[in-house]
Sequence to fold (163 residues):
Amino acid sequence: MSGPVTLSQLRALVGRPVGTSRWFRITQEMIDAHAETSQDRQFIHTDPVRATETPFGTTVAHGFLTLAMLSAMAYDAQPGLEGETMSVNYGMDRLRFVAPVPAGARIRGHFTLEALEEHRPGEVTTTWGVTVEIEGRDKPALVARWLNRHYLAPDPAPAEDIP
Fold:
């Protein structure tokens, strides 16, 4: 989608696929950096020689690295909301890591708007069905129901008529 959409336009998309991100290559350097940041240095992620002896045959990305890539994918695939001042990650209703992402593989996200709820004026929660595809593989890397909270600028007060 190009450009921001109105709340009414976004509401009309509920139940429909909305967008697909570009491909992102998951490099060993990214995996190593995530291992340092998260302090999860398990050899299946960081030791290419030893990882060849596992059923994966190579190093694989951390599930949480794949999950973290959702933010970049969302920028590609989800429309902006007109009047939005900010949005925040509100969490996951469901998350499953279905298949490992081998180092060097490319992934992309598919986003379906499953629900939209207005809590009060200017506060909207969207629920996205997300599938992260691994290029050339039958099984996805992950499937999730992801919630985002959006905050909208208040409508400007109408100008008073001055006699």
